[in-house]
Each structure stands twice: as structure tokens, then as C-alpha cells.
Design goal:
elongated, 3 domains, homodimer, alpha/beta, about 40% helix, Maf protein, 5-stranded mixed sheet, 6-stranded mixed sheet, about 425 residues, Alpha-Beta Plaits, Molybdenum Cofactor Biosythetic Enzyme, Chain A
């Protein structure tokens, strides 16, 4: 019988709408991977009565109550007092946590003067398991009370996540008596519903490993998660499922356990010792931005020309003005000339180019979303009309940049572009 | 006595962590502006019992219960049935909503075949106020039950927001017997804590208009919100407060009621009939991307060169290789040459350039975060070392791009750069 959990966030800033409850999202994803069912999220402010009420309600319904927030140094921060009360515990002063708080404080502010307030954070429920904070001052903790468990985590997302990784996840894994590992399968070129259709019963019937789809900006990620006695066994089960998915989705699977198309393309090119350049019109720098988001991209990427006006296309990239006149800026012919221009200007091994209508207005009487992409190399080139199904500027620009990256990936790995 | 509200989200996708509860954040911000206190958010799955329980609990505590999600066409979508039950109402078939659903469906899929499921969305609680959906199919509704109010909204953020704006906000404003208007004051160049310190008691003591700070990537936005009998009166009160803020923060206030630095700069340049170009090194296309995110930017922006390698700086931008050799790529001298190169290549009225170390590794023995920015025009130029207080690549790149935009703004409006 799998365990149930509720997530209780404590913080007025959430009720004022200053921030979204991304901690609850993160923890829910994690619990889902651990096979723990989440039936409820709730958020209350820094009010002792409402915190206690919410904690008692959650405790009455779920095996595990996870709180976020309210562990800080100010008098507003009431989580530990109130959760401890709901679990019938008193607080004690934890010397080791106090030392860690001092150490963290003075490492950040060598000339600072720590106030007594900060040490309030070292007050912890009697008999708890202390969760060290490696990304801030406030420690978290776990209370085990018969069949019920309370886990208290700090609110700032970076601290919450670091503590989850270092303390909570290992604790819950041990509790569940198994190891959980996962692989992320990255898919480009087919939509989420089409991925689900092609995979048939695999997603709904997947138990161990489970297969969960996540759609994001023209891409789909499939997370394959296995529970087993050892990591080796788990990865073996994941890899078997990954192979099955690959055999169905074919070359639409562009990578496993990588972050993005741009990372994938850069790694392939780095390995082959090749360089890249770009000429961008409608994407206006977005393609270059995505490539240079990756640390170390300078080993591959030589640069780009954002030719947002026709003169720049002609003068900097050397596009023949008569080509623009004859076929228009939004054409495969202009895309090709732009790619060849970038190849020459930057002296790179491969160049990509994109031109099209990102909207909101039509251009050259062509519909919003009309995009042409080209890649060129010494001795060859490919140009292609790119299908975009977004109808807004941001979506179209992102999809155009992704399509260009996928063209390069396919060219580099000898797949049909 | 101000009213209280609770927000109840219904949707398994939230409990699985597929999405964050951004609807609750948006609605909380809006309620806060309307002077309605929010004491609790909760999220439950598509389970009739838990939805009813949560609705009854919320109803027992708050004047207004706002639900999001669960209005769709599938059998999972149970919100209306269960909320109606908690408020003692039956459902009826709303012909007008059914017609609107059909119209929306066939406008998107002229050759589609609508299933009966879709018309389930036209089932609404008896005696409710119908909220039209202008961004999708499912209508929302309001139930008034003595002192208690239930408001049901669709889950998809675009639909939720559109319905809030068109139906809920006007309804709540009428309820509160006053008009609420606001102004957004945009601040660049000073951090949030420094803004708060300089404004002294203004933020904590603001009642009508209220002043609320929002920090975002190196910028601060101050939202000034006034409640009064008429919009004119409200805007007059806001504008008085805006003037007071401006008199304290001076030229760090870059705009009121605009979206971004890039929008502000583009509008000033468009008005003056000036054109812009750029040369980017460490920002790698991000600056151009941010400028071209704005529809209509092509009237001002001629393009840019992303010179990610030294050859491109020399050959395309015409940077003197001996300058790079003598002063390094990360230097004010190189930044200046890059700006002058872009000015010449693109024939624009103003050109900007940025070079620096975005990290994660040091470069030319210069620290991560060392950035130089330059602007050039016919007959003049300015170069500046840019202070970045972020220590990660994304933060540094964003801050560098913002700093360049702010330099252009200052230059264009005769402020010290």
C-alpha cells in the first residue's frame, strides 16, 4: 500500500501573490517519482492558529506532512513551534545547528554582527532528525511519530531543493526500501498527443519503470523512472524502456539525459571538432542566445549576424539583392544565401540561417508563421520550409530556432533533414 | 470590514507537479489590489469527495470561494457539480453558453466534429451569473448565496486571466463599491532593498494608494494602486504618489506603465526617428533577442553582429587586432571599437556593444562578471564598466543587456550615462 502525503506551505508572500508555490510543484514531482501519492496542497499565512489547524487537518488525512517556509529568523517564522505542537513535541536548542548557522553567517559577512534572532533557527523539535541546510541558515527536520511523519523544509526554492536532494529524498527512499533512478528521453519534431498515440499503452500501463510525458515549447520529454533494489538494476530497466521508446519514436528522439537541443548539437560538434555560425532574421538573436546560454559554447560557436534589415543581409552577409527582389526576404532562396554568407564571413564549418514572419503582422503578404531555414557547409546546403503550429511571436521564434538546431543535429548524424 | 477569500484549485496535474499553481498567484495579486484578504490556498485532485470537502471547508471560513480548474469537457471535470452541491444548487443547460461553445469549436476546427462531451461544459448552477470565456470553451460562473459567494474559473492560465479581467474583476469592484486603478513604476539601477530604504515609510505606511514592490532580474517594479469613487480620482491619487516616488528615486525611474527597458528605448527611438544596431560578445545574442521580442522593433533595430570569436570582431566589425592584443577582448577599448564597427556596418544612428566574462570560467585572467559596455553615434561615444552583482551566467548576461539598454535610454534623454 503506497503512502500518502500532503504539502503545507507557510508564508504570507504566497497569499499576497508575490511568488508562485513552485516548492509544491517540485516536491510533488519528486513524490510522484517515489510512488507517494499527493492528495492535497495548501498554503496558509504566518498565523499560529491557521498553521496549527492546517497541520492537524493534514496529519489526520496523510501519512506524511511536508511543510515549506516559516523556518527563518524572524518572529513571523512559526512553523517549527506549531508543527511540533501538532505532533506533541517541545523545542530544544540544537548546538550543532547553531554552530553551522554561525559558520554560514560569517562566511558570507566576515565583518557582520549576527543577532540573537539568527540562533532561533537552531530551536528544533525534540527527538527529530535534523536536516542540514547547505544553501542557507535555517535547518529543516523530520519528526517520526508512529505511523505519521512530518518533514519541515525552508521556503526559498534553492534551499528547499538542496535539502530535499541531500536529506529528504534519501530518507524517503530508505523508507520505501528501494532505489529510484530515472532517464530523460528528449523528443523533437512530434507533438505530445502524437507521442502518446504512437506509444500506445506504454504510458498509461507503465508501472515499473513508469513513463511520464512533459511537453515544453515544441518539445516533449519522457521521464522513465524505475524502482528496484539497486541502481544498476534500476538503470538496466530504464534503459530497456528507453530502447523500446526509441524503437517506436525513431530519430525523433534526439537525446537521453541531456538538457536541450542546443546542448546536444554543441556536444556533437565539439566531439567532431567542427565550428558553427548563424544568420538570423525573424529569430532576431534568439538562436544565438540559446546556443551561447551553454557554458563553453565558444569552442564551437563563432558568432552570428542578426540581419534585421535588408541592407544588412546584402552588405554584411553578401546576400544578392536581386535574390531578395525576385523571391522576397521570406523565401528559401534568401535563407540559403544567408547561410552561405554566414559560412563565408565566419569561416565556420557549418552555418545556419533563418528567415520568416514571426508576427504579429503579415510580411510580403506571407502568413505569420511562414519560416524558411537553411544549413550550409563547404560543398553543400539544405533549405527547408519549417512548420510552426504556434500562432504567437514568442512561440514561433522559439520553434524556428529549435527547428534549425534539429536540422543541424540531423545533418551531423546522417539522418534525413 | 474587508472581505476574505480562499482559492481552491482542482486538478490532478497540480498534485503531480506537472504545473505550478500560477493561477493562485495571479488571483492573489488581484485580490490584494482589491483589498480582499486571502487566508488560504488549497489544491485537490479530480475526486468528488475531496472537492466537496475542500469547498465546504473554504465556504465555512471565507466570504468568497474562488475555484480554478475542472470546468473542461471530460468526466474528470467535476468542479461545477460539486461546488453547486456545496452551495445547494442544481445544474441546468445554458443554451447561450452552448451556442458560444459551438461557435468557438468550429472557428478553430472548421472541418471538425464536436462531440457531446463539449456541451457538458454548458451545464451551469441554477441562478448563477455566467462568466463568458473569450479565450476557450468552458464558461465560468458566480453563485451568490446570501453573504457567501462562489466564483468558478477555468484552469488554463490564459483563460483564467481573460475571464478575471472581463468578468470577475468588474464584479468584485462593483461589490466593493469603488473603482481600483493602478500605475506600474519601473526602476532600474538600484536594488530592491535600496529602493525600500530610500522610500522610507512610503511602502509600509501606504494605504490608499498602496505601493507594493516587485523585484525581477536586476529591476524593481513598484505597483501603485488607488481605490476611489471614480477612475479619474484614482489615477489622480496614483499620479501624485508616482511623482513623489520619482522625486525620491530620480532618474532611476525609467518608465511608468511600460513593460520593459527594451520597450522604453524602442519607443523613444521610434519617436525621434532614430535607428539602432548592436555588437554582442558575452551576451551572445541576448540583447538582440530582447529588442526583437517587441513587435514592430524592425522600425528601429537594424541588426547586430554576435562576435563570439576574435576573428569575427576583427573581420566583420573591423576591430583593430592590435587593440585586442594590447588591451584584451575584455576591455573598454575593445567595447568601443565594437560599437564603432556596428555603427559603420549597419549605418545606424546609434550602436551599442558589450564584451565581458559571463562565466563560469574566468577569461584573460578577468573575474566572472567583468563587463564593458559602449554606445557610439556619429560624432561621439561613451564606454563604461558595468557593475553586475549576479554570479551566474544567466544573471550576468541579463544584467549586461539591461545595462546597455539603460545606457541608451540615458543618452537619448540627456541623463548622465
Amino acid at each position: 500500500m503506497s503512502k500518502t502525503a500532503e504539502i503545507l506551505a507557510i508564508g504570507t508572500e504566497l497569499l499576497l501573490g508575490n511568488i508562485a508555490n513552485t516548492d509544491a510543484q517540485y516536491i510533488s514531482q519528486q513524490l510522484s517519482e517515489l510512488g507517494i501519492n499527493v492528495y492535497c496542497h495548501s498554503v496558509v499565512g504566518d498565523n499560529p492558529e491557521r498553521v496549527t489547524q492546517a497541520a492537524e487537518l493534514a496529519r489526520s488525512r496523510a501519512d506524511i506532512v511536508i511543510t515549506t517556509g516559516g523556518l527563518g529568523p524572524t518572529t513571523d517564522d512559526l512553523t517549527k513551534e506549531n508543527i511540533a505542537r501538532a505532533f506533541g513535541r517541545k523545542l530544544y536548542f540544537d548546538e550543532r545547528s547553531a554552530d553551522r548557522i554561525k559558520e554560514w553567517f560569517y562566511s558570507k559577512r566576515p565583518n557582520g554582527k549576527m543577532t540573537e534572532n539568527n540562533l532561533r533557527q537552531a530551536m528544533l523539535p525534540e527527538g527529530c532528525i535534523v536536516l542540514d541546510n547547505n544553501a542557507g541558515t535555517a535547518p529543516g527536520c523530520i519528526i517520526e511519530d508512529g505511523e505519521k511523519i512530518a518533514i519541515m523544509l525552508p521556503g526559498p526554492p534553492a534551499e528547499c531543493r538542496a535539502m530535499w536532494e541531500s536529506g529528504v529524498r534519501p530518507y524517503l527512499e530508505k523508507l520505501s526500501d528501494c532505489v529510484i533512478v530515472s532517464r530523460n528521453v528528449r523528443v523533437y519534431g512530434i507533438g505530445e498527443s502524437s507521442v502518446e498515440t504512437r506509444l500506445g499503452n506504454i504510458i498509461p500501463e507503465s508501472k515499473n519503470p513508469t513513463v511520464a510525458p512533459y511537453a515544453k515549447e515544441g518539445e516533449v520529454m519522457l521521464r522513465v523512472t524505475a524502482r528496484s533494489d539497486s541502481a544498476e538494476e534500476g538503470y538496466a530497466a530504464c534503459d530497456k524502456m528507453v530502447d523500446k521508446i526509441k524503437s517506436i519514436l525513431g530519430d525523433n528522439v534526439y537525446a537521453v539525459d541531456k538538457d536541450s537541443l542546443e546542448q546536444t548539437v554543441l556536444e556533437i560538434m565539439k566531439e567532431k571538432g567542427l565550428t558553427l555560425s548563424a544568420a538570423e532574421s525573424c529569430t532576431g538573436g534568439l538562436l544565438s542566445k540559446r546556443i551561447t546560454d551553454i557554458p563553453g559554447s565558444s569552442a564551437v560557436f563563432k558568432g552570428s549576424v542578426v540581419s534585421y534589415c535588408n541592407e544588412a543581409k546584402a552588405e554584411i552577409l553578401g546576400v544578392d539583392p536581386s535574390v531578395i527582389e525576385k523571391f522576397g526576404v521570406i523565401s528559401s532562396e534568401t535563407a540559403l544565401e544567408m547561410a552561405q554568407g554566414a559560412l563565408e564571413r565566419f569561416g565556420s564549418d557549418i552555418a545556419v540561417a533563418v528567415t520568416g514572419v514571426a508576427g504579429p503582422d503579415r510580411q510580403e503578404d506571407k502568413e505569420v508563421g511562414t519560416i524558411y531555414g537553411a544549413i550550409a557547409w563547404q560543398g553543400g546546403s539544405i533549405v527547408k520550409k519549417i512548420e510552426t503550429y504556434y500562432r504567437n511571436r514568442t512561440g514561433i521564434r522559439n520553434m524556428a530556432a529549435s527547428a534549425l538546431l534539429d536540422m543541424v543535429r540531423r545533418h551531423l548524424t546522417n539522418l534525413p533533414v
